Amino acid sequence: MAIADRLLTLVHTTAQDVFAALRANPTPLQAVVVEEPSIADHGDYATNAAMVLAKELGAPPRVIAEQLAEGLRADAMVDRVTIAGPGFLNFWIAPDALARELVTLLDRGVEYFRPDIGHGATVQVEFVSANPTGPLHVGNGWLATYGDALSRLLEFVNYRVTREYYVNDTGGQIRQLGASIIAVRSGAEVPEGGYRGEYISDLALRYHGSDDVVEAGSWAVPIILELIRATLVSLGIEMDSWFSQASIEESGDVALVVARLDATGATYQRDGALWFASERFGDSRDRVMRKSNGDFTYLAGDIAYHYNKLVIRSFSLVIDVLGADHHGQVASMMAAIRALGIDEHRLEIKLGQMVSLLEQGQAVKFSKRAGTAIPLDWLIQELGRDATRLLILSSSIDRASQIDLVQAKAQSMENPVYYVQYAYARIAALLRNVASRQIRVEVGSSDALAGLNHPRELALMKDLLRLESVIVRAVEERAPHKIVGWLMQMASDFHGFYHDCPVITAEPSVRDARLTLARAAQLALGVALDLLGVTPPEEM
RNA sequence: GCCCCUGUAGCUCAGCGGAUAGAGCAGCUGCCUUCUAAGCAGUCGGUCGUAGGUUCGAGUCCUACCGGGGGCGCCA
Prior knowledge:
This protein is α/β, with parallel strands linked by helices and 540 residues long. It has 3 domains: 3-93, Gyrase A, domain 2 (2-Layer Sandwich); 127-246 and 353-412, Rossmann fold, CATH 3.40.50; 415-532, Isoleucyl-tRNA Synthetase, Domain 1, CATH 1.10.730. It is built from 20 helices and 15 strands. The protein has helices spanning 3-21, 49-57, 61-73, 95-108, 138-156, 172-185, 198-206, 213-234, 245-251, 253-263, 298-312, 327-339, 376-383, 385-393, 405-410, 416-436, 446-449, 455-476, 481-500, 508-532; strands at 34-35, 45-47, 78-84, 88-93, 122-126, 160-167, 241-244, 267-270, 273-276, 287-290, 317-323, 347-352, 356-359, 362-364, 402-404. Strand 13 and strand 14 form a beta hairpin. The longest helix has 25 residues, at 508-532. The protein binds one RNA strand of 76 nucleotides through helix 2, helix 6, strand 10, helix 11 and helix 12.
């Protein structure tokens, strides 16, 4: 258990003692938290327990705080407790307790940072799923990287993850694609709503089939998918599964699912079409399942696809990563899940807000059809894989990012990714130097490590002990960008340590303790970088 | 009109209901004879969109308003 969690437990038990002493009934303590103050004078950790209890007990916070402090001081883990402000309890952790924790960390290795949240459950993350009508653009890169980092996080906390790309290989846009290729081949204008761009010209040169738009479109899909796959690989992303929309339609599952909705009385006929009464299940209006011409709608196919994921393939959890332009589908899909009697908590839909490019202060929207989309390949080539990933992962997907490409490129050598990677590389260099100088290192007994009490060393240790809880939060909130926040702090603290605390030239006991700390830091940096899919470089 | 996201430093963005709101970039000033200066230290820069409310305590929660983005098809 992490130190903060152990402290919270300690605060809880001490609170029970206070209740008993006051002959008061114990009350729930959910509001009690242990946190790390941003100000060093406020201790290594702090709790609001006295203020919460004061409310429950109707006594002044500082009086309660005195009683709590009494009990807390008795614990060996706690070095010092002070009462401050409106009734905060500030703790300082005993150096030997930190040292023991560091020993445990090194003993357990990567596992030290791994909370078992998933318990081996299966989860499918569906992301990218861009129509196979052209190369990925920069906007696709955002959600692709988010989806991959989320998948890495879930894998780390013991989910069995399947990364899936839903291939919309049927329908109107495939006909448009075919029509565009045929038009360019015959030297005609690309039709209204068609696709433009160099790749269309390339395809037109290679296409030797008939003038049937479906044939031409279907012919092009696998070629374009291969381009997409290659782009993803260059971003460090490999899908486990490419799921064809056409295959769902051919399987008969669409009819099956519509029949199931029918059987539960959730559908009705109107104007020659079959409707799903989705409003009864929380949608803003009802939706058509089968058009008056007999074809199923996209939504019907999409419901069948989700039925396939949740029932036929029976993933415990399904996460759809979609662009905010798919917001309109969410309520309909959730309504269908409820109508089919599936536990709605098994489907999560994460909406990523739109990304826009800034060109001379003006926002430029992506349009594949108009040919104004900036290719993702271009961005990766300009910035490199690691800088691209970190740029994308440093902010929340709830925010509509604006990226100034000129600035992004100009800053590529100043990208924060190098700051973080440099910390890792510096440790690698340290360890190489130790090896090449044939220094014998006695790795860390907790006694030796208790000598680590320089402020830089303490800051580093606290970062190490915090990583697990950061990972928990990042997973729970589906927010990989929280890992970036930790990495920046960790890198900053490491560079400060490196600057102020010589390692190899220090006397042997100090040197060995610092080397041990550096090793732990490298381990943690490696875990965090790996969660983001960013390379941990041995040298720079 | 209704629904979702959002508004924090010049720019791009972090920020668990807690104490004196942070980082990177841009600007200014120092620090390489010393384990990698892709670094460290300092400095400049803020009515956290506005107004109410809840709370011992609000950038964070609630309401209204203002601004920005997206969505509301028998398209996919």
